[in-house]
C-alpha cells in the first residue's frame, strides 16, 4: 500500500472488527483523481483485489443511445487478460443499474456517463470491489447522486460459516457466494447476485452482516472525501 | 374551422385536441394532462365531424402532429382514444391508477402469475426439448448432446453450455447482430443457476475419464418477448433436461474410437428442480409478480428468486434498481416457494401425461 502517494487523498483503514470473528473485511484502501483525462477516477484495493476506475461524463452521447429525459449510463469492465466475455457483461449490468439508481440522471438529459473499470488484480470479491471503485470515481467526478453505494461479498463455507470479503481461494472452496450492493441512505439491498445454494436464514444473515460492513465502508468514503478536501484548502 | 391534434410520442406530456368552430364561436376541447381527463362541450361538434376534419389545413398550429386517427368518429371512439392516449402519454400514471386498486391492466392481481403452459418433445430432432408459455412470453429450449473431450481442469466431468438467444423476431427492442447485454446476462444467469442448483451431476456426463464425455448444448430461444424471460427460461431448461435422452456411448478398446448405441437410450438424472419467480418493484414500494414487458420497463427494480424443491435458495438475482428491504425480500421468497410447488406440479403433470400417451 506504500506505493500510493500520500498527497493524493489517500485513505486507508485496517482490519475492522465485526461481531463475528470470521466477518472481517480485508485491508482496503483507495486513491482518487489519479488519472488526468477522465472527469473522475479512483482505484480501490481490497486485500489483493484491485480495480482502477475512470468516469467520463456528462458528455456527448451517441444518437442511437440518447434518452430524451435522462443521461445514458454505460459501464465497461476490462478484464486483466483477454477480451470481456459473458461474465463481464453480467457484472457490467449489475454495476450499471446500481449507478443508474444512485445518479440523478434527469439532471443531465441527452448526455452520457461512462464508467470504465479496469481489473488490475482479481483475488476474490471482484464485483464488490468494482462497485466500490465505481462509487469512488463517481464521487470524484462530482456527479450528483441521491445516495452512495458499496459492495460487500459474503461466502458461506461448507461448514456453514459466513466469510466476509473472501479471497479467490475462499471463493473456490465455499458452498455459496453472495454479493450485495448496499445504499447509504437506508442501508437496503440495491443489487443481489448469488451463486450456490443456501437457506433463507443464511441469506438474511449475510444481508445483515453486509449491512453492518457497509457502514464501515461508508465511513471510509466520508473520511477519504473529508481528508481530500481539507488538503485543498 | 380547424382542429389541432397533438398526438406525439411519449415525450409529449399532454395531448390537446381543440376543435374550433370560428363562425359560431364555440369550441370543444379534450385535454389529457398528467392527472385529469376532461372532455368538454362534445355536443358542439356537428355530426359530420369525424377525425377526418383533423386533416383540414391547420391555422396557427404549424407544429401540430397529425396521426392516423382519421376514420373513426369522434363520438364513438372518444373513450377508447382517451384510454389509449392516456396509456401512450402517461404509461406510468396509467399503471399506477390500476395498482392503486390492487389490480393490473391485464386484470391480474398483484401476486398472480399469468397462465403458464408447457409442452415437451416439441422439437423431434433435438435430444430433448420443451416449449413454455407464460402469458404471451414464449420460450423454446432444445438440447443437443455431443461427444467431446473432457475439460483438462475437470477430467472426470462433462459440461453444459446454456445459451439464451433473443432474436429480433421476439420483440422490436432487440436488433440483429451479436447478442446484446440482456441476452448475455440471461445466459450467464442460467449458467449460474445450473451450477448452483446442482441440477445434474456432471460426473455422470463423463464416459471415460479424460477421454470422452457428453457436452449438453442447451439453446434457449425466445419466440415472443412479453416480460419475465428468466422464469420461462428456467422452466424450459428444466423440462428439456428432464425430457432429454442420451444414447449409450462407449469407447472401443481396439480402435480407441467412440461408439454410440442409438437403441439404448436413457434419461438424465435430475437432482434438483429449481424454479424461478420474477418480481417487479413499482415506485420503490409496490411489488408485483410476473411482470409483462411493459411493466418491466416501467418498474424501478426487478428481482428473480430461484428456489428448489427443498425450499433452499439457488439464486437471488437483483440486477440493480432501487433498494429493497429485508421484509420485502422475505415476502418475495415466500411467494417463490409457493410458485415452485405450482410449477413442479405442472411439470410432473406434463411428464405423467406423456407417459400415459405412450
Verbal overview:
Chain A has one domain: Ribosomal Protein S5, domain 2 (2-Layer Sandwich). In chain A, 31% of the residues lie in helices and 30% in strands. Chain A contains four helices and ten strands. A six-stranded mixed beta sheet of chain A has the order 1-2-3-4-6-5, with helices on one face. In chain A, helix 1 packs across helix 2 (126-141). The longest helix of chain A has 33 residues, at 200-232. Chain B folds into two domains: 9-99, no CATH class; 116-357, Ribosomal Protein S5, domain 2 (2-Layer Sandwich), CATH 3.30.230. In chain B, a hairpin with a 3-residue loop joins strand 13 (275-282) and strand 14. In chain B, helix 1 (74-89) packs across helix 2 (91-99) and helix 3 packs across helix 4. The N and C termini of chain B lie far apart (72 Å). The chains are: A alpha+beta (233), B alpha+beta (358). Chains A and B meet through helix 1, strand 9, strand 10 and helix 4 of A and helix 3, strand 16 and helix 6 of B.
CATH 2nd-level architecture of chain A? 2-Layer Sandwich
Instruction: Average the pLDDT over all residues of chain B and give the rounded result.
Output: 78
- Main sheet characteristics of chain B: 6 strands, mixed
Distance between the termini of chain B: 72 Å
Domain tally of chain A: 1
Distance N to C terminus of chain A: 26 Å
- By CATH reckoning, the class of chain A would read Alpha Beta
Give the helix/strand class of chain B: alpha+beta
Low-confidence stretches of chain A: 1-21
Query: What would you give as the CATH superfamily of the largest domain in chain B?
Result: GHMP Kinase, N-terminal domain
> Total domains of chain B, how many?
2
Superfamily (CATH H level) name of chain A:
GHMP Kinase, N-terminal domain
> Shape of chain B, please?
elongated
CATH topology of chain A: Ribosomal Protein S5, domain 2
Describe the largest sheet of chain A: 6 strands, mixed
Measured on Cα atoms, how large is the radius of gyration of chain B? Answer: 27 Å
| Low-confidence regions of chain B | 1-76
- What share of residues of chain A is helical? 25-40%
